[in-house]
Write a structure and sequence with these properties.
Largest sheet: 7 strands, mixed
Distance between the termini: 15 Å
Strand order of the largest sheet: 1-3-4-2-5-6-7
CATH class: Alpha Beta
Number of domains: 1
Radius of gyration: 16 Å
Bound molecules: guanosine-5'-diphosphate, magnesium ion
CATH superfamily: P-loop containing nucleotide triphosphate hydrolases
Shape: globular
Length: 196
C-alpha cells in the first residue's frame, strides 16, 4: 500500500467531538518526545504534517489525519512528561482510556518506545490496557539510528521481558524517521490490519 493523500482533519479534546466511526483507525501512542510525529510524517512522506518539537507539549488532544480518504491515523496525546500538572495527567488518563475502551473502529495501535530506554511504568500501563481491551498492537522501537543493531536486538529482548504480557503484540519494529528503517514493516502491518 502507498499513502497517496494525507490530510490533517482536526484536533479533538473530548470524545464527544470524535468523527463518526465509519472509517477504520490506526492509532499511535507513546511518551512525549518518543518520535510519534516524526513517524507519522515519515509514513506520509510529508515533513510537516504532524508538528514535531523538542519541547514536550502540554496539550491533551487527539489529532486526526485522513489517509487515502480511506482510514484515519490518530495521534494520541503524549504522556510521561514530568512537569505536566497533576490535573492534566488525570485528564490525559481518562481521555486515552475512554478512547481505547469505547472506540470500536480501532484496527491497530502502534505503541512507541524509545529504543535507548527501557519501557516506563506508563508504557507498561498502556500495553496492559491494550491487552485488557483486546486491541491488536505493535511495539515500535524509535530512533534506531542512534543505537547499533546489536543493542537493538538486546533492547527488543529486554522490552519483551519487561512488558511480559504481550499476547496481542503483533511485532517489535525498529524504526528510524531518519533512515526510514522499519517503514515498510509498519506499512505492511497497517495494510494487513485494514484487510482483517
Ligand atoms: N535521531 C532521531 N531523532 C528522532 C527520530 N524521531 C524523532 N526524533 C527527534 O526526537 C524529537 C521528538 O520528536 P517528535 O516526533 O516531535 O516526538 P513526539 O513528541 O513523540 O511527537 C525531535 O527532536 C525529533 O527530531 C529518529 O528516528 N531519529
Ligand atoms: Mg508529536
Amino acid at each position: 500500500m502507498k499513502i497517496q493523500t494525507a490530510e490533517f482533519v482536526n484536533s479533538v479534546t473530548d470524545l464527544g467531538q470524535l468523527p463518526t466511526a465509519h472509517l477504520p483507525e490506526i492509532v499511535f501512542i507513546g511518551r512525549s518526545n518518543v518520535g510519534k510525529s516524526s513517524l507519522i510524517n515519515k509514513l506520509c512522506g510529508k515533513s510537516k504534517l504532524a508538528k514535531t518539537s523538542s519541547i514536550p507539549g502540554r496539550t491533551r488532544q487527539l489529532n486526526y489525519y485522513l489517509i487515502n480518504e480511506e482510514f484515519y491515523f490518530v495521534d494520541l496525546p503524549g504522556y510521561g512528561y514530568a512537569k505536566v500538572p497533576e490535573q492534566i495527567k488525570t485528564g490525559w488518563r481518562k481521555l486515552v482510556e475512554d478512547y481505547i475502551s469505547t472506540r470500536k473502529n480501532i484496527k491497530l495501535v502502534f505503541e512507541l518506545m524509545d529504543s535507548r530506554h527501557d519501557p516506563t511504568y506508563l508504557d507498561q500501563l498502556m500495553v496492559n490496557w491494550l491487552e485488557y481491551y483486546e486491541i491488536n498492537y505493535a511495539i515500535v522501537l524509535t530512533k534506531s539510528d542512534k543505537i547499533s543493531q546489536n543493542k537493538m536486538e538486546r533492547q527488543i529482548y529486554r522490552t519483551s521481558k519487561i512488558v511480559s504480557n504481550e499476547q496481542l503484540c503483533r511485532d517489535y519494529i525498529p524504526f528510524s524517521a531518519i533512515s526510514g528503517e522499519g517503514r515498510n514493516t509498519v506499512m505492511k502491518l497497517i495494510e494487513e490490519s485494514l484487510e482483517s
